[in-house]
């Protein structure tokens, strides 16, 4: 039964579409880099521990020749102690540098602290839909249209409860708070249609709170926002 369960789990995983690892914007690419970088860094740790584990199990296994062997008493090893203190610090430092840099650059800011230049879109979340208002005054529901290759400045607000704005291909999750505007920037999106959703449980119809993010050419975007 255990083997069957494992096989079924693997089959389910092969059908997963991990959108965050298929970035379609500069913002999402930086975030995907952090995921992949941290994964392989941790794989180095896992591999090292596994190799040492196998080596020690084999070296110190019980045999007839060792049944009367008494190892000498060892009180400490300064070299080994320094190694397992210094190496984790170095690994954390290597991981921390790009993590802090990218997180600091991409974190949403309060509306009055934003000075970004680009295409501004005002996003309002409410149970259970999204409203997108463009700079021309055009307002639509559940259909986000943005131009390719631009800085997209999203002004996020909520009318009721806490929601979470998320288009996995374009960027990470951002909380949308009632009574507070947060500004989130998506850099250089690629042309395509991507699924967006609310990633914070917000009520009984939370699963229906989805939208499409359509990245189009600059010319098509200009026509779109200026048409009736």
List the helices and strands and how they pair.
Elements: H1 2-14, H2 26-59, H3 78-106, E1 109-110, E2 119-126, E3 129-134, E4 139-141, E5 143-147, E6 151-158, E7 163-166, E8 174-176, E9 182-187, E10 192-198, E11 210-216, H4 218-226
Parallel strand pairs: 2-6, 5-11
Antiparallel strand pairs: 1-9, 2-3, 3-4, 6-9, 7-8, 7-10, 10-11
Catalytic activity: 4 Fe(II)-[cytochrome c] + O2 + 8 H(+)(in) = 4 Fe(III)-[cytochrome c] + 2 H2O + 4 H(+)(out)
Keywords: Copper, Electron transport, Membrane, Metal-binding, Respiratory chain, Translocase, Transmembrane, Transmembrane helix, Transport
Transmembrane segments: 33-58, 82-104
Task: Tell me what you see in this structure.
- The structure is a single chain.
- With 228 residues, the chain is α+β, with helices and mostly antiparallel strands.
- A 6-stranded mixed beta sheet has the order 1-9-6-2-3-4, covered by helices on one side.
- A hairpin with a 2-residue loop joins strand 2 and strand 3.
Q: Rg, please?
A: 25 Å
Query: For the record, what CATH class of the largest domain applies?
Result: Mainly Beta
Poorly predicted sequence stretches spanning 5 or more consecutive residues: none
**SSE string, helices as H and strands as E:** HHHEEEEEEEEEEEH
Tally the structural domains: 2
Helical stretch tally:
4
Membrane topology: Multi-pass membrane protein
EC number: 7.1.1.9
GO cellular component, one term: plasma membrane
GO molecular function, one term: cytochrome-c oxidase activity
């Amino acid at each position: 039964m255990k083997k069957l369960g494992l096989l079924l789990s693997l089959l389910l995983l092969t059908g997963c579409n991990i959108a965050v690892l298929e970035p379609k914007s500069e913002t999402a690419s930086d975030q995907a880099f952090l995921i992949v970088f941290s994964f392989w860094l941790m794989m180095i740790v896992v591999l090292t521990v596994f190799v040492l584990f196998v080596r020690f199990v084999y070296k110190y296994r019980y045999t007839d020749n060792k049944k009367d062997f008494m190892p000498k008493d060892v009180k400490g090893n300064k070299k080994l102690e320094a190694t397992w203190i210094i190496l984790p610090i170095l690994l954390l430092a290597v991981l921390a540098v790009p993590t802090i840099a990218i997180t600091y650059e991409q974190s949403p800011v309060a509306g009055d602290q934003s000075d970004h230049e680009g295409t501004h879109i005002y996003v309002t979340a409410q149970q259970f839909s999204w409203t997108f208002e463009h700079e021309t005054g055009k307002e639509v529901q559940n259909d986000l249209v943005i131009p390719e290759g631009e800085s997209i400045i999203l002004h996020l607000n909520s009318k009721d409860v806490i929601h979470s704005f998320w288009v996995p291909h374009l960027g990470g999750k951002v909380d949308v708070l009632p009574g507070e505007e947060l500004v989130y920037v998506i850099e250089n999106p690629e042309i395509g249609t991507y699924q967006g959703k609310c990633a914070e449980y917000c009520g009984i119809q939370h699963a229906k709170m989805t939208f499409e993010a359509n990245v189009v050419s600059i010319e098509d975007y200009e026509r779109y926002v200026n048409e009736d």
